[in-house]
Amino acid sequence: MNELIYFFNYVVVAGSVTGCIYAIGAVGVTLIYSILRFAHFAHADMMTLGTLAVLLLTLAFPHAGAPLGLPTAIVMLPVAMAFTSLVAVGIDRAFYQPLRSHGVKPIVMVIASLGVTLMLQGLIRLFAGTGSQNLYVDARKEIFRIDVPGVTRPIILTEPQIILFVITIVAVVGLHLFLTRARLGKAMRAMSDNPDLARASGINTKLIITLTWVIAGSLATIAGTLLSLDVAFKPDLSFFLLLPIFAAAIVGGVGHPYGAIAGGFLVGFAETLAVFNWSVLLRPLRDSLPTWLELPNNLALVGTEYKIVVPFFILVAVLIWRPTGIFKGKVI
Amino acid sequence: MPLLEAVDVHGGYGGMNILNGVNMTIEADEIGVIVGPNGAGKSTMLKAVFGLLTITQGEIRLRGKPITNLSPHKLVEMGMGFVPQEKNIFATLSVEENLEMGAFLKPATVSRLKAQIYEFFPPLREKRRQPAGELSGGQRQMVAMGRALMNEPSVLLLDEPTAGLSPRYMNEIFDRVKTISAAGVGVLMVEQNAKQALRIAHKGFVLAAGQNRFSDTGEALLNDPQVAKSFLGG
Fold it and tell me: Which SUPFAM superfamilies match (chain B) (predicted)?
């Protein structure tokens, strides 16, 4: 039983945490792709920017969360989301929109977004420095130990992890309701499906583009903040998520929000399972194993330092098996 | 004052003129049909009316107001509806959502108009929750026309609405076009099935090489031996 709890703590919980963050990031990437038809490489640094906004607000008002019983960073999240959305819309107006009106090829937009990401990285380091900082400024991270009867080892969940799960569920359900019920949400799907016909129906495509950036900026802030709450704020934390997030979006089927969620969890769990030490699970069988078979201490598929390889392995496998992704996405 | 009027329209894509002086007039309750050989500029003319290509010379007027080179968005606001020949539905959206998108500019009227469209195209009511892309060709054409009608247009532009349809659906679509026009909506359509289309047309325009060759009532064109010989296959 102890081994199962260990598995739960180190695979189910850890995989869900990674999965949630990849999923929220990938939804943003996929929404931008579905409306603007280019891979937005600045998405990861938009996550960091949003988190930086949370950090600065938290440092300015360290005790704002105490009356509500929440970490201050969570209370500041809506403000930071609004700020990041504004910046995202501003970036679009300043850099992407002029290119769009010239009718450039998607690859030009991709390179422009690389430029934006380098610019953001510089700006973020200018304000936050290069070291890591804790987003918990006013209180200690609470750790919940849930005892399972008959087992010595407890299930361990931390406060930021619980917040992460709750906010992810709220964000996903909210986005689903918006896309399927709201007039503008349906118009967004319509524009993703057939932009010419959307224009011919009188849909205000400029408004839809602005809305896309608002949603992308908000989701990026959520993903970055939740990640930094779980570990700590670092200027390059999200940048290293860029490739797994793109893998998740492509695996799920580009332009397909539900696919991005599925892809996010698939990549997150695959990463976690790949670095999990399976020898722990086999330990109870040790006594019944033949004597010549000795159980090694570490039985992980890949070492932790090679974790980044896993998303690419899945990406290649899925693209060979199903080139449009799990859900039928748009072919790039 | 005619509903829609095109005077000596020249235009094309990227400096290459396809239209070399097209003239057309339709009244509020009329069906105008554009026929002609391949490459005559039929669809191009329809797109020119809807602001999808640059008109270099001439003028288009809607109820006497010049609308030359206005954006499609503006024209939809002014009451023009356009059904392209291809990719004329939102394939991943449900039938109902397709209709709702047609009334994007008039959210208050959605439920009333939706009920009217379901009356008008009964098969769509049963399929309203299905993705439009899963429907048959004829039903897709109904979704496409329904979407355009949701904006309560005063002019409806149809680009080959019966292309690739079975004779049964073809007759049904022509029938619907007659009803739409009888309700006071001006219809301008391009048709490959020239004879059947001219039978329901109040006005017919035979284009060749981007110019009017013959313009008359539908009946007169059908009975004109010259039109029959050169354009309607004898």
Answer: P-loop containing nucleoside triphosphate hydrolases
CA distance B76 to chain A (A): 6
Range of the domain at B2: 1-70+181-234
Closest partner residue to B101 (CB to CB) among A190, A196, A204 is A190
Q: Tens of pLDDT along B6-40?
A: 999 999 887 788 999 999 999 998 999 999 988 88
Between positions 181 and 210 of A, the ones with CB within 8 A of B are: 183, 186-187, 189-190, 193-194, 196-204
| Total domains present in chain B | 1
Question: How much is the pLDDT for A331?
Answer: 46
Task: Give B94-130 pLDDT, tens digit per residue.
Answer: 999 999 999 999 999 999 999 999 999 999 999 999 9
**Residue B32 covered by a domain:** yes
Q: Judge: B92–A198 Cβ closer than 8 Å, yes or no.
A: no
Sort out which chain A residues have CB atoms less than 8 A from B105's CB and list them: 202
Task: Find the CATH number of the domain harbouring B200.
Answer: 3.40.50.300
Instruction: Return the residue in A194, A201, A256 with the most chain B beta carbons within 10 A, the one to mutate for interface testing.
Output: A201
Q: Closest to A201 (Cβ–Cβ): which among B76, B91, B92? A: B76
The count of CB pairs under 8 A between chains A and B is 56
Q: Spell out the residues 6+ positions from residue A87 whose beta carbon is closer than 8 angstroms to its own.
A: A46, A49, A217
Q: Which residue of chain B comes nearest to A187, CA vs CA?
A: B101
Q: Summarize pLDDT for A180-207 with one digit per residue, the tens.
A: 999 999 999 999 999 999 999 999 999 9
Q: Is the pLDDT of residue A137 over 90?
A: no
Percent of chain B with pLDDT over 70: 99
B89 touches chain A (CB under 8 A): yes
pTM of the model: 0.90
Domains defined for chain A, CATH in brackets: 2-287+294-321 (1.10.3470)
Q: What is the pLDDT of residues B69-99, one digit of tens each?
A: 999 999 999 999 999 999 999 999 999 999 9
Query: Is the pLDDT at A332 greater than 60, yes or no?
Result: no
Shortest CA gap B106–chain A (Å): 10
Burial class (CB in 10 A: 0-12, 13-18, 19+), B229: exposed
Report CB contact under 8 Å: B87, A196: yes
Residues facing B188 on adjacent strands? B32, B157
